[in-house]
Amino acid sequence: NLKPFEEVANVGFVAYAGPGTSGVGEILIDGIKFGIADRDYYEVLPDGTKKTEFTWDEAMEIEKKTNGKWRLPTPQELNAMVAAFGYNDEGVFDGDLFAKRLGLTTDEDGYGHFWSRTANSQPSARFLYFNGTYVGPQDNNTKVHGFTVRCVAQL
Description:
alpha+beta; 3-stranded antiparallel sheet; 28% strand; globular
């Protein structure tokens, strides 16, 4: 009973289950369901290569490129993703499990960096940072860094 969400641009699909269930790629915040895209956002460059890391300003343009269907998650939504998909059966955060469950991209050292839509100050914005044993869903960094983007959509 999983249903596909419409694919838009290079964001992907999200699979979700019916009301009252906790389907793959779904989070519930204050009674509102949000779907999590099944892959990281990318853009194909003129030379055919894929761009997979974006500055915060570039990442904020994704909502326009997808006609408002997809957007960067808020820090609250990132917290919900971590709570729903980041913990093992013993209740301990497991970055490898978190990345596997959501198909998240990590660097060669197993670190993941994903922008949120929340600016913290002129030069900085919030982002999700994690590795095998640590998660910081509201870390801060300057907006010029190239981080990965995982979009959400209200269902």
